[in-house]
Amino acid sequence: MRRTLFLIASVLVSAVFLWLALRNVPLNEIVDSITHADLGWVLLSLVAISLGMWTRGYRWYGLLDFKIPFLRAAHILNVGFFLNLLPLRAGEVVRALLATQAGVPVMTAATSVIVERMLDTLLVVLALVIAIPRLPNVPDGIIGPTNLFGVAVVSAFVVLIFFSRFPDIGHRVLEVIERFLPFLKRLGLNRLFDHVLDGLKPLTHWRSAAHAILWTLIAWAISLFTLYCLVRALRFEGDQMLLSVTGLALTSFSIAIPVSVAGLGPFQAALLVAGQAMGAPDAQSLSLGFLFHGVNILGYVVWGVVGLLTMGLSVGELLNRKQPAATSAASGGNPS
User: Fold this and answer.
1) Cα Rg for the chain, rounded, in angstroms?
2) Secondary structure of residue 199 in the 3-state scheme
3) pLDDT tens sequence across 89-124
4) In terms of CB atoms within 10 Å, which end of the chain has fewer, N or C?
5) How far is CA 328 from the centre of its chain?
6) Using an 8 Å Cβ cutoff, are 125 and 149 in contact?
């Protein structure tokens, strides 16, 4: 029953976002823009999305402490991305489960997902802080709060790493906060706090931190190039790199919405907002949204299926497996 309700809610959310994005834009203009895209740049974006998935696989391989072969880690990650296209977004839980079955300790598998998501979120926030002040059609009142938000996120990240290195200090601070705000005790923050601190432990050691940060930068640079190729394919005027940075950051936030069908709707709306901020035509911006979304989905499906075939698994078998409690708790709500 819960799965059925979640599926219905996902379809409705996607439909609402698509309606909001498309209501004032003739569909034939979007189709015409896509059909006249430069095929060479589109093909290059397909190569880039594949390369980006494998670099993310290498990052995760390091976060698993190199405990399983790289190819197996990459295949598991690709299967996870593929399963995240489903409304139930089971990919993160499944890949942590597959990692533990391959010999990775449960906590290592679970906390690797936390590190990934926190690094990705930090990078996306910094990209927005850099991009928004440079956008031509953004109100001045947004710039200040955006910069403040960026400083707050970076500061919180640094503080959490410090607490991960010295957890006793972190728990004492949490006790003080709960003493002043006693209602927080009912939320079970201690358990969540422990999960986050455990997840950040790899970043308290310079070798694992250097690996995670370096390959995060490489993976996101390739993702940026993927979108830039499509911006070139659709022949956007103006600062194409700024549009790519803004669009990538906004779409990354959009897919964090857990209730949608493979991100359809929120993804297109995010690129519409990015295009409007750059003064681009709505039809062209939505064309970019559908094209970039399609390239991502195609990459996830192709490499996800390759991973399933290589490991001799099926989607039904994976979705029906039981996952360890620690793994499930660590992976809930994470975007792909």
Assistant:
1) 20
2) helix
3) 678 888 888 999 888 888 788 888 888 888 998 999
4) N
5) 18
6) yes
Joined tokens for residue 231: 């911006």
CB 30 within 8 A of CB 293: no
Contacts of 94 (CB under 8 A, 6+ apart): 79, 80, 83, 318, 319, 321, 323
Phi-psi region of 36 (alpha: psi -120 to 50; beta: other; left: phi over 0): alpha
pLDDT of residue 282: 95
Which secondary structure element, helix H or strand E, spans residue 157, and what is its range? helix 140-165
Task: Give the start-to-end residue ranges of the domains of the chain.
Answer: 15-331
CA 209 vs. chain centroid, Å, equals 19
Give residue 261's identity as a one-letter amino acid code: V
DSSP per residue, 79-93: HHHHHTTSTT--HHH
The residues of the chain scoring below 70 in pLDDT are 1, 87-89, 258, 321-336
Helix/strand/coil (H/E/C) assignment for every residue in the chain? CHHHHHHHHHHHHHHHHHHHHHCCCCHHHHHHHHHCCCHHHHHHHHHHHHHHHHHHHHHHHHHCCCCCCHHHHHHHHHHHHHHCCCCCCCHHHHHHHHHHHCCCCHHHHHHHHHHHHHHHHHHHHHHHHHHHHHCCCCCHHHHHHHHHHHHHHHHHHHHHHHHHHCHHHHHHHHHHHHHHCHHHHHHCHHHHHHHHHHHHHHHHCHHHHHHHHHHHHHHHHHHHHHHHHHHHHCCCCCCHHHHHHHHHHHHHHHCCCCCCCCCCCHHHHHHHHHHHHCCCCHHHHHHHHHHHHHHHHHHHHHHHHHHHHHHCCCHHHHHCCCCCHHHHHHHCCCCC
Distances (CA, A) of 258 to 111, 153, 255, 302, 328: 20, 21, 7, 22, 15
